[in-house]
Amino acid sequence: MKKQTAMTDNSFDALCASRFSCRSYSPAEVVDEILKAILEDARLAPSACNRQPWRFVVVKSDAGRETVRASYDRPWFADAPLYILMCGVPADGWVRADDGKNHTDIDVAIATEHVCLAAEAHGLGSCWVCNFKPEVLAGLDLPDGVVPVAIIPLGYPGEGVGAPAKVRRVLEETVLYR
Ligand SMILES: Cc1cc2nc3c(=O)[nH]c(=O)nc-3n(C[C@H](O)[C@H](O)[C@H](O)COP(=O)(O)O)c2cc1C
Prior knowledge:
It is built from 7 helices and 4 strands, in the order ααβααβαβαβα. It is of the alpha+beta class.
């Protein structure tokens, strides 16, 4: 049987606290080894019924980056050296029999946050972006049935950029007990 491991320090708590939506990037390259480690962390994400209804599209080419940038026209977004399109494959997603709910977006969201936390662990900045124009991303010629859910710009944070103070509801307002 596989040995159970547990984090005995508070490094995961620290990671959750330090990750932030990075909206300024340095042009420094992200080496393939780090990119691969981040994609591996995404691959290990849980999914309903282990269907893994996802594709992670790495956009590094000049033409690809141009298309992604046109889908979300913000100066800071254009600075990122690369993007990961977190895509769902709804035809592969688990559907709850009771009410027909397809869980693809939930599965992709979990993998996406794995990417963001892994990026933080490697000293990289990231930001969820869902406010993109889906019709522009059609220019990437994705396979049929592969639907972009979120775009994650990835790169080293720009000079002097750090995590702002977290704005969150307090725990007492967030957690209910019955
Ligand atoms: C599903 C989702 C969609 C988001 N879409 C965008 C977006 O399109 N553009 C953007 O600048 N930030 C986007 N964000 C980032 C949020 O604004 C951000 O996570 C939130 O304000 C909390 O800040 P923090 O990530 O720095 O802790 C999105 C976040 C999530 C989870």
